[in-house]
Design goal:
It is a single chain. This protein is about 65% helix and about 0% strand. It is an all-alpha fold. It has a domain of about 80 residues: MazG-like (Helix Hairpins), CATH 1.10.287.1080. α1 crosses α4 and α2 packs antiparallel against α4. The radius of gyration is 18 Å and the shape is globular. It binds magnesium ion. The site of magnesium ion (MG) has 4 residues, from α2 and α4.
């Protein structure tokens, strides 16, 4: 029996329950949530430290690295959800809007196969 994956809204609700049960809202200023996101993103990046890019690509699909990668990705997502909730941002809509904007900035005919910034296309 497979368990249905929670939506972003459901994850946010669980996070708020977790936070409030511990009376931690007082520590979760928007500034500190953003700082924590950056720290967790650094923990994610730290997994690659001193490893050749190709080796890391291979390791990322195997244990124990996959588990560590999974945990740091989750930490990043969970802080991002808390930031969005705190700032009143609809994260799914914001992400969809950003993809739409990027599609306009990087039309396939101009950007395919090049890493150039949109201002250089
Ligand atoms: Mg972490």
């Amino acid at each position: 029996m497979t368990q249905e994956k929670p939506s972003l809204d459901e994850l946010t609700e669980r996070l708020l329950q977790f936070r409030d049960a511990r009376d931690w809202r007082q520590f979760h200023s928007l500034k500190d949530l953003m700082l924590s996101l950056s720290l967790e993103a650094s923990e994610l990046l730290e997994l690659t430290q001193w490893k050749p890019a190709d080796d890391f690509e291979t390791d990322a699909h195997k244990e124990p690295m996959q588990q560590r990668l999974k945990e740091e990705c989750a930490d990043v997502l969970l802080y991002l959800l808390l930031i969005a909730e705190r700032a009143g941002i609809d994260l799914q809509q914001a992400a969809a809007d950003k993809i739409n904007a990027n599609e306009l900035k990087y039309p396939v005919e101009k950007s395919r196969g090049t890493a150039a910034k949109y201002t250089e296309l």
